Task: inverse folding
């Protein structure tokens, strides 16, 4: 069943209209904390430190890894020194203990990737989803 977003699917799940759902850790965090949901697997390469007893899909024999990423982009012509300055500021902010504590309280694991590594990740995911889109006949 298709839903317009995480809120709709969460309501359908809590209302007993569907038996399972796939959402990010942050989206199910409050339900997990309240004991309303059991996480059966995570779509990460390795087990999450927040859910050490929950296996990955790979461990369950399903080759499924999906990430939910947030990043910042700048115009293509932005000078490298500006990119470096921004990257350093984001790295510093993302390792601030207070920030990490707030993210943990919301169930949002945080991991910093610099411009090159984040670019590689985005390119890799683009290739995977482009191929999947073709296989499903969704590409034009």
Result:
């Amino acid at each position: 069943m298709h839903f317009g977003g995480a809120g709709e699917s969460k309501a359908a799940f809590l209302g007993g209209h569907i038996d399972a759902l796939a959402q990010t850790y942050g989206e199910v965090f409050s339900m997990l904390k309240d004991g309303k949901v059991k996480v059966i697997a995570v779509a990460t390469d390795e087990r999450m430190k927040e859910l050490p007893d929950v296996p990955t899909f790979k461990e369950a024999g399903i080759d499924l890894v999906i990430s939910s990423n947030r990043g910042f982009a700048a115009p293509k012509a932005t000078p490298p020194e500006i990119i470096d300055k921004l990257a350093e500021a984001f790295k510093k902010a993302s390792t601030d203990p207070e920030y990490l504590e707030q993210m943990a309280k919301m169930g949002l694991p945080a991991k910093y990737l610099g411009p090159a590594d984040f670019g590689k990740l985005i390119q890799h995911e683009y290739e995977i989803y482009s191929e999947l889109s073709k296989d499903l006949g969704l590409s034009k």
User: Anything to note?
Assistant: The longest helix spans residues 115-135. The mean pLDDT is 88.
